[in-house]
Amino acid sequence: MTFIPAASWLRQLGFETRAFEVLSIVEEKRSQRDAGWDCIVTIAAAPDGRQFQLFVEMRSQLTPQLAIAAFQKLSLVPSNGIRLLCAPYISPRVAELCRNENVGYLDGAGNCWLAGPGFFINISGRANPRPRSDSTIDPFSKKSSRIVRALLTNPNKGWQLQQLARTADVSLGLASKVKHALLEEAFLEERQRLLYVRDPAKLLNAWADQYHPDIKPLHLFAMTRPQETERNLGNWCQSKKIAYAVTQLAAAWRYSPMVRYERSVVYVDRRVELQVSIEEFLRQINAREVDTGANCTLWLTDDSSVFSGSTEIDGLNMVSPLQLYLDLKQLPGRGAEAAEAIAENELQEIFTSVADERKQTGGEPT
Q1: Could you identify which of 6, 55, 347, 359 might form a hypothetical disulfide with 86, taking C-beta atoms 3.0 to 4.6 angstroms apart as the criterion?
Q2: Looking at the domain that runs over 216-349, which CATH code has it been given?
Q3: Residue-wise pLDDT tens digits, 131-154
């Protein structure tokens, strides 16, 4: 793609911000662009006219995967130059990758991040709808996220696609589509025909940002205290061989007792509706359904993956730390604090950066 849109956007940015003026634009020859950048833009920064050279790479489309490849090309930029990626649309994920690599970016709406010695411009929030892509699958949808769950359960493991599909209990076709989506978003990388998670913490938080449990909530008022209600519910579910798992603050208190709670939240397999009447069920746990004032909420679900990796604590089933982190992230107020405690105490393998490990092992995580 020609450099002209980038040049126009830079002139407009300089005019709007009054932060700089474009002095010259030099387009590289095609043979040079293949190994480096598309053009060099010289600007004079206000108010003293100090000059900076922007080494600009222009893309018609810029996925995270393409951005990482562009970083390699721009690595040849002289140390006193400012690296700049331009594209009509730049996603938050690409923007984050650019900032982490100290590479500037600019999109067609004027959203940008440019940094140099004594020179900084940051504009965000301008509406710039993402181009539609009917071929891209959502890796965080209900069924696709089973792949993500498997990856994060063993965050440093190298996976063959067939093995990943079997572990996640999805078709090979779906696994392949999710693989390509995660590669494109630079959450996965492929080395020696194996798939590795690039940064488990970022993948988990990207999932948490979009996560919504597939549930039918049942709000109850139980006559007993929360812990006794949970015990009654657990005993009854076990006697009927119905899957259940405590979540949110009630589970966080068991894993890391730093946040008190007054309301139980429990996943229950939705098949309970087929085995008994809700009225009978509520009699067993001494509770009634209410519109307000609930002290126990049942999350009836047909998504078996929420029970994956559940742990027994004090004789009760708790959701896995991974599932608990997702559920706490949906909870306003104390949920964020509790999620951080779970991350620190139970998810160290995910939230320990793999960057240093790669440096120490020459690029291969141990």
Answers
A1: 6
A2: 3.30.460.40
A3: 766 557 899 999 999 999 999 999
